[in-house]
Description:
single chain; alpha+beta; 2 domains; seven-stranded antiparallel β-sheet; three-stranded antiparallel β-sheet; elongated; disordered C terminus
Amino acid sequence: MSLPENAAFETFLRECSVVATKPANLFLPLSEAHAAGRVVSECPPLFIKHPSSDLKISSVLRQIVRTLSSCGSPATEQVAIAALALIVESRPEGVSAVEHSNACLERLIEARLMQSVVLQTPLRSGYRLDLGTYSLAAFDPTKILYSARRGGSSFPIDLREIAGCPALERAPIDVSLVDWGPACSGGAILRKWGTEIVDKSFKDSYFAAVSDFFTLQIKATIKQDILVYESAGMIFIDVDSLIHAPLTKVISLFDWKTAAGHKSWALFTNVSNFHVNLQPDDEFRASKQWLEKALGYTTLNPEKPFDRAIETYCRFLQRANEQRREGRRDEAFLHFAIALDLLLGAEGKSAESVAQRAALIVHRDIGKSPEDAVNLLKGLYSVRSKYVHEGRATSPNDTLLIEAICSAVLWSLLACSSKETFVTIDDWVLKVDYAFAAERAKTPLSESDLLALGIPAAGERRQPPNRIGDIAATSENW
Protein backbone atom coordinates (compact mmCIF):
# COMPACT_ATOMS: atom_id res chain seq x y z
CA MET A 1 0.00 0.00 0.00
CA SER A 2 1.22 3.53 -0.77
CA LEU A 3 -0.01 7.10 -1.03
CA PRO A 4 -2.32 7.57 -4.06
CA GLU A 5 -0.66 9.15 -7.07
CA ASN A 6 -3.34 11.72 -7.81
CA ALA A 7 -3.59 15.50 -8.09
CA ALA A 8 -5.25 15.95 -4.69
CA PHE A 9 -2.40 14.31 -2.75
CA GLU A 10 0.26 15.90 -4.94
CA THR A 11 -1.10 19.40 -4.42
CA PHE A 12 -1.69 18.96 -0.68
CA LEU A 13 1.84 17.65 -0.02
CA ARG A 14 3.44 20.40 -2.12
CA GLU A 15 1.60 23.07 -0.13
CA CYS A 16 2.56 21.66 3.26
CA SER A 17 5.56 23.15 5.07
CA VAL A 18 7.20 23.22 8.48
CA VAL A 19 7.51 26.57 10.25
CA ALA A 20 9.06 27.75 13.52
CA THR A 21 6.36 30.34 14.28
CA LYS A 22 2.98 29.00 15.34
CA PRO A 23 0.46 29.75 12.52
CA ALA A 24 -2.90 31.34 13.26
CA ASN A 25 -4.76 28.30 11.88
CA LEU A 26 -4.44 25.10 9.82
CA PHE A 27 -1.41 23.63 11.56
CA LEU A 28 -0.25 20.68 13.63
CA PRO A 29 2.51 20.66 16.27
CA LEU A 30 5.38 18.54 14.99
CA SER A 31 5.69 16.73 18.32
CA GLU A 32 3.27 16.86 21.21
CA ALA A 33 5.96 15.40 23.45
CA HIS A 34 8.46 18.11 22.48
CA ALA A 35 5.85 20.85 22.84
CA ALA A 36 4.94 19.63 26.34
CA GLY A 37 8.56 19.38 27.38
CA ARG A 38 8.43 15.63 27.95
CA VAL A 39 11.27 14.96 25.50
CA VAL A 40 14.49 16.61 26.63
CA SER A 41 15.62 18.81 23.72
CA GLU A 42 17.19 22.23 23.35
CA CYS A 43 15.38 22.93 20.07
CA PRO A 44 12.14 24.96 19.95
CA PRO A 45 8.90 23.25 18.87
CA LEU A 46 8.03 23.30 15.16
CA PHE A 47 4.68 23.29 13.36
CA ILE A 48 3.34 21.73 10.16
CA LYS A 49 1.37 24.31 8.18
CA HIS A 50 -1.09 22.70 5.78
CA PRO A 51 -3.50 23.98 3.10
CA SER A 52 -7.26 24.23 3.17
CA SER A 53 -8.63 21.82 0.58
CA ASP A 54 -11.17 19.08 -0.05
CA LEU A 55 -8.46 16.63 0.99
CA LYS A 56 -8.23 16.87 4.78
CA ILE A 57 -5.06 16.54 6.85
CA SER A 58 -6.67 13.67 8.76
CA SER A 59 -7.06 11.72 5.50
CA VAL A 60 -3.41 12.26 4.61
CA LEU A 61 -2.27 11.10 8.04
CA ARG A 62 -4.49 8.01 7.86
CA GLN A 63 -2.96 7.13 4.50
CA ILE A 64 0.55 7.46 5.93
CA VAL A 65 -0.47 5.23 8.84
CA ARG A 66 -1.84 2.61 6.43
CA THR A 67 1.32 2.75 4.31
CA LEU A 68 3.61 2.30 7.30
CA SER A 69 1.43 -0.47 8.74
CA SER A 70 1.46 -2.36 5.44
CA CYS A 71 5.26 -2.29 5.60
CA GLY A 72 5.26 -3.66 9.14
CA SER A 73 6.49 -0.42 10.67
CA PRO A 74 5.01 1.15 13.85
CA ALA A 75 2.24 3.55 12.84
CA THR A 76 0.20 6.00 14.88
CA GLU A 77 -1.09 9.46 14.06
CA GLN A 78 1.88 11.02 15.86
CA VAL A 79 4.31 8.83 13.88
CA ALA A 80 2.52 9.97 10.71
CA ILE A 81 2.84 13.65 11.71
CA ALA A 82 6.59 13.28 12.25
CA ALA A 83 6.91 11.40 8.94
CA LEU A 84 4.91 14.07 7.11
CA ALA A 85 7.22 16.83 8.38
CA LEU A 86 10.31 14.97 7.22
CA ILE A 87 8.73 14.18 3.86
CA VAL A 88 7.62 17.69 2.94
CA GLU A 89 10.89 19.32 4.04
CA SER A 90 13.22 16.80 2.38
CA ARG A 91 11.60 16.70 -1.06
CA PRO A 92 14.13 17.65 -3.75
CA GLU A 93 13.14 20.39 -6.19
CA GLY A 94 11.35 19.04 -9.26
CA VAL A 95 10.50 15.65 -7.73
CA SER A 96 6.88 14.51 -7.42
CA ALA A 97 5.67 14.96 -3.84
CA VAL A 98 3.76 11.65 -3.84
CA GLU A 99 6.67 9.79 -5.43
CA HIS A 100 9.05 11.21 -2.82
CA SER A 101 6.63 10.35 0.01
CA ASN A 102 6.29 6.73 -1.05
CA ALA A 103 10.05 6.39 -1.58
CA CYS A 104 10.64 7.62 1.99
CA LEU A 105 7.96 5.46 3.64
CA GLU A 106 9.02 2.29 1.87
CA ARG A 107 12.74 2.68 2.67
CA LEU A 108 13.06 0.68 5.90
CA ILE A 109 15.82 -0.46 8.22
CA GLU A 110 15.66 -3.28 10.77
CA ALA A 111 16.49 -1.96 14.22
CA ARG A 112 16.47 -3.19 17.80
CA LEU A 113 14.67 -1.27 20.53
CA MET A 114 15.87 -1.34 24.14
CA GLN A 115 13.43 0.39 26.48
CA SER A 116 13.15 0.87 30.24
CA VAL A 117 10.66 2.79 32.37
CA VAL A 118 12.70 3.93 35.38
CA LEU A 119 11.01 5.01 38.62
CA GLN A 120 12.50 7.37 41.19
CA THR A 121 11.63 5.32 44.26
CA PRO A 122 13.60 3.04 46.63
CA LEU A 123 13.72 -0.67 45.81
CA ARG A 124 14.52 -3.56 48.11
CA SER A 125 17.86 -5.20 47.34
CA GLY A 126 17.48 -8.20 45.05
CA TYR A 127 13.88 -7.38 44.09
CA ARG A 128 12.83 -8.82 40.71
CA LEU A 129 9.50 -9.61 39.08
CA ASP A 130 9.50 -11.54 35.80
CA LEU A 131 6.08 -10.75 34.37
CA GLY A 132 6.46 -12.34 30.95
CA THR A 133 7.32 -9.83 28.26
CA TYR A 134 8.47 -7.36 30.93
CA SER A 135 10.49 -7.59 34.11
CA LEU A 136 10.59 -5.24 37.09
CA ALA A 137 14.00 -5.00 38.71
CA ALA A 138 16.82 -2.61 39.56
CA PHE A 139 17.88 -0.53 36.54
CA ASP A 140 21.27 -1.52 35.11
CA PRO A 141 22.36 0.92 32.37
CA THR A 142 25.45 -1.06 31.31
CA LYS A 143 24.05 -2.65 28.13
CA ILE A 144 22.09 0.36 26.90
CA LEU A 145 25.07 2.68 27.47
CA TYR A 146 27.34 0.32 25.56
CA SER A 147 24.94 0.18 22.60
CA ALA A 148 24.50 3.97 22.64
CA ARG A 149 28.26 4.64 22.59
CA ARG A 150 28.76 2.04 19.85
CA GLY A 151 26.10 3.70 17.71
CA GLY A 152 27.29 7.25 18.28
CA SER A 153 24.40 8.54 20.42
CA SER A 154 24.07 9.70 24.01
CA PHE A 155 21.49 10.55 26.67
CA PRO A 156 21.03 14.03 28.19
CA ILE A 157 21.89 12.69 31.66
CA ASP A 158 24.37 10.13 32.93
CA LEU A 159 22.22 7.01 33.26
CA ARG A 160 24.56 5.68 35.93
CA GLU A 161 23.01 8.27 38.28
CA ILE A 162 19.74 6.31 38.27
CA ALA A 163 21.26 2.82 38.39
CA GLY A 164 19.52 0.68 40.99
CA CYS A 165 16.15 2.45 40.69
CA PRO A 166 13.14 0.25 39.86
CA ALA A 167 12.88 -0.29 36.11
CA LEU A 168 10.12 -1.85 34.06
CA GLU A 169 12.05 -3.34 31.17
CA ARG A 170 11.22 -5.54 28.22
CA ALA A 171 13.59 -7.77 26.30
CA PRO A 172 15.01 -6.00 23.21
CA ILE A 173 12.49 -6.03 20.37
CA ASP A 174 13.07 -5.98 16.62
CA VAL A 175 11.33 -3.12 14.83
CA SER A 176 11.16 -1.88 11.23
CA LEU A 177 11.89 1.85 11.01
CA VAL A 178 11.83 4.35 8.20
CA ASP A 179 15.40 5.10 7.13
CA TRP A 180 15.49 8.89 7.05
CA GLY A 181 19.25 8.99 6.37
CA PRO A 182 19.07 9.30 2.56
CA ALA A 183 16.30 11.94 2.67
CA CYS A 184 18.10 14.04 5.29
CA SER A 185 21.71 13.57 4.20
CA GLY A 186 21.72 16.69 2.08
CA GLY A 187 19.61 19.05 0.05
CA ALA A 188 16.56 21.09 1.00
CA ILE A 189 15.99 20.11 4.61
CA LEU A 190 19.59 20.71 5.72
CA ARG A 191 19.85 23.99 3.84
CA LYS A 192 16.69 25.30 5.50
CA TRP A 193 17.08 23.97 9.02
CA GLY A 194 20.65 22.80 9.59
CA THR A 195 21.87 19.52 11.02
CA GLU A 196 21.09 20.24 14.69
CA ILE A 197 17.40 21.04 14.19
CA VAL A 198 16.95 18.21 11.68
CA ASP A 199 18.32 15.81 14.26
CA LYS A 200 16.87 17.23 17.49
CA SER A 201 13.44 18.28 16.19
CA PHE A 202 12.59 16.38 13.00
CA LYS A 203 14.25 12.99 13.52
CA ASP A 204 13.83 13.06 17.28
CA SER A 205 10.08 13.59 16.84
CA TYR A 206 9.87 10.49 14.66
CA PHE A 207 11.87 8.28 17.02
CA ALA A 208 9.97 9.66 20.05
CA ALA A 209 6.64 8.85 18.39
CA VAL A 210 7.77 5.28 17.67
CA SER A 211 9.01 4.96 21.25
CA ASP A 212 5.60 6.14 22.50
CA PHE A 213 3.97 3.52 20.27
CA PHE A 214 5.64 0.82 22.37
CA THR A 215 5.26 2.65 25.68
CA LEU A 216 1.50 2.79 25.16
CA GLN A 217 1.45 -1.01 24.77
CA ILE A 218 3.01 -1.65 28.18
CA LYS A 219 -0.19 -1.85 30.22
CA ALA A 220 -2.08 -4.06 27.75
CA THR A 221 0.94 -6.37 27.33
CA ILE A 222 1.53 -6.80 31.07
CA LYS A 223 -2.17 -7.26 31.81
CA GLN A 224 -2.31 -9.99 29.16
CA ASP A 225 0.84 -11.69 30.46
CA ILE A 226 -0.49 -11.79 34.05
CA LEU A 227 -4.14 -12.32 33.11
CA VAL A 228 -4.46 -15.68 34.83
CA TYR A 229 -2.71 -14.54 38.02
CA GLU A 230 -4.81 -11.39 38.41
CA SER A 231 -8.04 -13.15 37.46
CA ALA A 232 -7.34 -15.67 40.23
CA GLY A 233 -6.76 -12.87 42.74
CA MET A 234 -3.19 -14.10 43.32
CA ILE A 235 -1.47 -10.81 42.45
CA PHE A 236 -2.25 -7.29 41.33
CA ILE A 237 0.15 -5.11 39.33
CA ASP A 238 -0.76 -1.43 39.39
CA VAL A 239 0.66 -0.74 35.93
CA ASP A 240 -0.71 2.80 35.75
CA SER A 241 1.12 3.81 38.90
CA LEU A 242 4.32 2.22 37.60
CA ILE A 243 4.43 4.05 34.28
CA HIS A 244 2.96 7.37 35.50
CA ALA A 245 4.72 7.83 38.84
CA PRO A 246 6.36 11.21 39.65
CA LEU A 247 9.81 11.71 38.08
CA THR A 248 9.49 8.52 36.01
CA LYS A 249 11.79 8.37 32.98
CA VAL A 250 11.25 6.41 29.77
CA ILE A 251 14.65 5.51 28.35
CA SER A 252 14.71 4.17 24.80
CA LEU A 253 17.49 3.28 22.41
CA PHE A 254 17.09 2.29 18.76
CA ASP A 255 20.12 0.45 17.41
CA TRP A 256 20.75 -0.76 13.85
CA LYS A 257 23.56 -1.82 11.54
CA THR A 258 24.78 0.02 8.46
CA ALA A 259 27.56 -0.68 6.00
CA ALA A 260 29.76 1.63 8.08
CA GLY A 261 28.91 -0.04 11.40
CA HIS A 262 26.31 0.44 14.14
CA LYS A 263 24.07 3.50 14.42
CA SER A 264 21.78 4.33 17.32
CA TRP A 265 19.25 6.90 18.47
CA ALA A 266 18.82 7.65 22.17
CA LEU A 267 15.64 9.07 23.74
CA PHE A 268 15.00 10.31 27.25
CA THR A 269 11.38 11.14 28.09
CA ASN A 270 9.89 12.54 31.30
CA VAL A 271 6.57 11.24 32.65
CA SER A 272 4.59 12.60 35.58
CA ASN A 273 1.52 11.58 37.53
CA PHE A 274 0.75 10.05 40.93
CA HIS A 275 1.78 7.07 43.09
CA VAL A 276 3.50 3.70 42.72
CA ASN A 277 2.55 0.32 44.18
CA LEU A 278 4.99 -2.59 43.82
CA GLN A 279 3.93 -6.24 44.02
CA PRO A 280 6.07 -8.45 46.30
CA ASP A 281 8.28 -10.43 43.92
CA ASP A 282 8.54 -13.52 46.14
CA GLU A 283 4.75 -13.83 46.25
CA PHE A 284 4.51 -13.72 42.47
CA ARG A 285 7.19 -16.38 42.09
CA ALA A 286 5.35 -18.59 44.59
CA SER A 287 2.10 -18.15 42.62
CA LYS A 288 3.76 -19.14 39.35
CA GLN A 289 5.38 -22.17 40.94
CA TRP A 290 2.09 -23.29 42.51
CA LEU A 291 0.16 -23.05 39.24
CA GLU A 292 2.79 -25.08 37.43
CA LYS A 293 3.14 -27.73 40.15
CA ALA A 294 -0.53 -28.08 41.11
CA LEU A 295 -2.16 -27.61 37.71
CA GLY A 296 0.59 -27.97 35.10
CA TYR A 297 -0.10 -24.41 33.93
CA THR A 298 2.61 -22.23 32.37
CA THR A 299 0.84 -20.18 29.72
CA LEU A 300 -2.30 -20.06 27.56
CA ASN A 301 -2.15 -20.62 23.82
CA PRO A 302 -4.51 -18.22 21.97
CA GLU A 303 -4.37 -20.53 18.95
CA LYS A 304 -6.43 -23.10 20.87
CA PRO A 305 -10.22 -22.56 21.18
CA PHE A 306 -10.26 -23.97 24.72
CA ASP A 307 -7.59 -21.50 25.88
CA ARG A 308 -9.30 -18.58 24.15
CA ALA A 309 -12.41 -19.30 26.19
CA ILE A 310 -10.30 -19.30 29.35
CA GLU A 311 -8.90 -15.89 28.38
CA THR A 312 -12.42 -14.47 28.03
CA TYR A 313 -13.39 -15.91 31.41
CA CYS A 314 -10.23 -14.50 33.00
CA ARG A 315 -10.82 -10.99 31.70
CA PHE A 316 -14.09 -10.79 33.64
CA LEU A 317 -12.41 -12.18 36.75
CA GLN A 318 -9.56 -9.70 36.35
CA ARG A 319 -12.05 -6.84 36.17
CA ALA A 320 -14.00 -8.18 39.15
CA ASN A 321 -10.90 -8.45 41.32
CA GLU A 322 -9.88 -4.91 40.44
CA GLN A 323 -13.35 -3.65 41.40
CA ARG A 324 -13.19 -5.60 44.65
CA ARG A 325 -9.83 -4.03 45.51
CA GLU A 326 -11.28 -0.59 44.85
CA GLY A 327 -14.14 -1.24 47.29
CA ARG A 328 -16.84 -1.63 44.61
CA ARG A 329 -18.12 -4.86 46.11
CA ASP A 330 -21.49 -5.03 44.32
CA GLU A 331 -19.92 -4.51 40.88
CA ALA A 332 -17.27 -7.11 41.67
CA PHE A 333 -19.90 -9.66 42.71
CA LEU A 334 -21.85 -9.01 39.50
CA HIS A 335 -18.78 -9.48 37.29
CA PHE A 336 -17.90 -12.76 39.03
CA ALA A 337 -21.46 -13.97 38.34
CA ILE A 338 -21.29 -12.81 34.71
CA ALA A 339 -18.01 -14.71 34.26
CA LEU A 340 -19.72 -17.94 35.37
CA ASP A 341 -22.70 -17.27 33.10
CA LEU A 342 -20.49 -16.69 30.06
CA LEU A 343 -18.50 -19.82 30.70
CA LEU A 344 -21.17 -22.25 31.87
CA GLY A 345 -24.43 -20.77 30.59
CA ALA A 346 -26.18 -21.44 27.34
CA GLU A 347 -29.14 -19.98 25.49
CA GLY A 348 -32.37 -21.32 26.95
CA LYS A 349 -30.63 -22.64 30.08
CA SER A 350 -31.63 -21.45 33.55
CA ALA A 351 -29.41 -20.19 36.35
CA GLU A 352 -29.94 -23.61 37.93
CA SER A 353 -28.04 -25.31 35.12
CA VAL A 354 -25.10 -22.93 35.65
CA ALA A 355 -25.26 -23.68 39.38
CA GLN A 356 -25.25 -27.42 38.73
CA ARG A 357 -22.29 -27.26 36.40
CA ALA A 358 -20.27 -25.01 38.71
CA ALA A 359 -21.18 -27.15 41.72
CA LEU A 360 -19.93 -30.35 40.10
CA ILE A 361 -16.64 -28.65 39.17
CA VAL A 362 -15.91 -27.02 42.54
CA HIS A 363 -17.54 -29.29 45.14
CA ARG A 364 -14.29 -30.92 46.20
CA ASP A 365 -12.42 -27.63 46.35
CA ILE A 366 -15.04 -26.23 48.73
CA GLY A 367 -15.43 -29.44 50.72
CA LYS A 368 -19.12 -30.09 49.97
CA SER A 369 -21.23 -32.70 48.24
CA PRO A 370 -22.42 -31.82 44.73
CA GLU A 371 -25.98 -31.26 46.00
CA ASP A 372 -24.87 -28.98 48.84
CA ALA A 373 -22.67 -27.08 46.39
CA VAL A 374 -25.71 -26.61 44.10
CA ASN A 375 -27.68 -25.08 46.98
CA LEU A 376 -24.79 -22.73 47.75
CA LEU A 377 -24.63 -21.60 44.11
CA LYS A 378 -28.40 -21.10 43.98
CA GLY A 379 -28.15 -18.88 47.04
CA LEU A 380 -25.51 -16.75 45.36
CA TYR A 381 -27.63 -16.45 42.21
CA SER A 382 -30.51 -15.32 44.41
CA VAL A 383 -28.23 -12.60 45.80
CA ARG A 384 -27.42 -11.51 42.26
CA SER A 385 -31.10 -11.40 41.31
CA LYS A 386 -31.96 -9.26 44.34
CA TYR A 387 -29.13 -6.87 43.55
CA VAL A 388 -30.07 -6.54 39.86
CA HIS A 389 -33.84 -6.34 40.31
CA GLU A 390 -34.24 -4.83 43.79
CA GLY A 391 -30.99 -2.95 44.29
CA ARG A 392 -30.28 -4.95 47.45
CA ALA A 393 -26.56 -4.72 48.29
CA THR A 394 -24.36 -7.81 48.46
CA SER A 395 -22.45 -8.73 51.61
CA PRO A 396 -18.65 -9.10 51.93
CA ASN A 397 -19.13 -12.80 52.46
CA ASP A 398 -21.19 -13.13 49.25
CA THR A 399 -18.32 -11.64 47.25
CA LEU A 400 -15.78 -13.83 49.00
CA LEU A 401 -17.77 -16.98 48.22
CA ILE A 402 -18.41 -16.31 44.55
CA GLU A 403 -14.80 -15.23 44.01
CA ALA A 404 -13.54 -18.46 45.55
CA ILE A 405 -15.95 -20.49 43.37
CA CYS A 406 -14.81 -18.66 40.25
CA SER A 407 -11.19 -19.36 41.18
CA ALA A 408 -11.91 -23.06 41.75
CA VAL A 409 -13.50 -23.22 38.29
CA LEU A 410 -10.38 -21.55 36.90
CA TRP A 411 -8.14 -24.18 38.52
CA SER A 412 -10.12 -26.89 36.71
CA LEU A 413 -9.89 -25.05 33.40
CA LEU A 414 -6.13 -24.60 33.69
CA ALA A 415 -5.66 -28.25 34.64
CA CYS A 416 -7.59 -29.30 31.51
CA SER A 417 -5.67 -26.82 29.37
CA SER A 418 -2.31 -28.20 30.48
CA LYS A 419 -3.43 -31.74 29.62
CA GLU A 420 -5.07 -30.65 26.33
CA THR A 421 -8.01 -32.92 27.22
CA PHE A 422 -10.67 -30.88 25.40
CA VAL A 423 -10.68 -28.97 22.14
CA THR A 424 -13.49 -26.56 23.01
CA ILE A 425 -15.27 -25.37 26.14
CA ASP A 426 -18.50 -26.86 24.76
CA ASP A 427 -16.87 -30.30 24.81
CA TRP A 428 -15.89 -29.77 28.44
CA VAL A 429 -19.32 -28.46 29.51
CA LEU A 430 -21.01 -31.42 27.82
CA LYS A 431 -18.86 -33.83 29.85
CA VAL A 432 -19.56 -31.81 33.02
CA ASP A 433 -23.32 -32.18 32.41
CA TYR A 434 -22.87 -35.92 31.93
CA ALA A 435 -20.87 -36.16 35.16
CA PHE A 436 -23.51 -34.24 37.13
CA ALA A 437 -26.31 -36.42 35.76
CA ALA A 438 -24.34 -39.52 36.69
CA GLU A 439 -23.76 -38.16 40.21
CA ARG A 440 -27.46 -37.41 40.66
CA ALA A 441 -28.35 -40.90 39.40
CA LYS A 442 -26.03 -42.39 42.07
CA THR A 443 -23.73 -43.79 39.36
CA PRO A 444 -20.79 -41.36 39.63
CA LEU A 445 -18.02 -41.35 37.06
CA SER A 446 -14.70 -42.96 37.82
CA GLU A 447 -11.99 -41.01 39.60
CA SER A 448 -9.96 -40.78 36.40
CA ASP A 449 -12.94 -39.31 34.51
CA LEU A 450 -13.41 -36.64 37.19
CA LEU A 451 -9.71 -35.82 37.18
CA ALA A 452 -9.93 -35.43 33.40
CA LEU A 453 -12.50 -32.65 33.97
CA GLY A 454 -9.94 -30.79 36.10
CA ILE A 455 -11.67 -31.74 39.36
CA PRO A 456 -9.17 -32.35 42.19
CA ALA A 457 -8.68 -35.80 43.67
CA ALA A 458 -11.03 -36.94 46.44
CA GLY A 459 -10.16 -35.26 49.73
CA GLU A 460 -7.96 -32.67 48.03
CA ARG A 461 -8.61 -28.91 48.19
CA ARG A 462 -6.45 -26.66 46.04
CA GLN A 463 -5.19 -23.65 47.99
CA PRO A 464 -2.83 -21.23 46.24
CA PRO A 465 -0.05 -19.67 48.34
CA ASN A 466 -1.11 -16.06 47.86
CA ARG A 467 -4.42 -14.25 47.72
CA ILE A 468 -4.89 -10.50 47.40
CA GLY A 469 -6.90 -8.67 50.03
CA ASP A 470 -9.69 -10.49 51.89
CA ILE A 471 -10.31 -13.46 49.61
CA ALA A 472 -8.65 -16.28 51.51
CA ALA A 473 -11.69 -18.57 51.69
CA THR A 474 -11.90 -20.80 54.75
CA SER A 475 -14.38 -23.47 55.80
CA GLU A 476 -16.32 -21.16 58.13
CA ASN A 477 -17.17 -18.94 55.18
CA TRP A 478 -19.10 -21.65 53.33
